[in-house]
Write a structure and sequence with these properties.
The protein has 63 residues and is α+β, with helices and mostly antiparallel strands. It has helices at 2-7, 19-27, 51-61, and strands at residues 31-35, 40-44. It is built from three helices and two strands; from the N terminus they run ααββα. Strands 1-2 form a two-stranded antiparallel ribbon.
């Protein structure tokens, strides 16, 4: 959780959040997961309030 906060959430509203808050707001979301041969796509609901933050964290952690 420390690395997630340091690498992906720096400069966001969850940069100084507690581990429980990050888990509830960012990791426990309802999403559709589509798995292909080469990639996994996570598609949260279009009305999810932290959708952009989730996408930002995903891009920051991508290789």
């Amino acid at each position: 959780m420390q690395r997630l906060r340091a690498l992906a959430l720096a400069g966001t509203e969850l940069a100084r959040a507690a581990a429980h808050t990050i888990r509830v707001k960012l990791l426990k979301i309802g999403a559709s997961i589509v798995r292909n041969t080469r990639r996994v796509r996570v598609m949260p609901a279009s009305h999810h309030p932290l959708r952009e933050l989730f996408a930002h964290a995903g891009r920051a952690l991508a290789p």
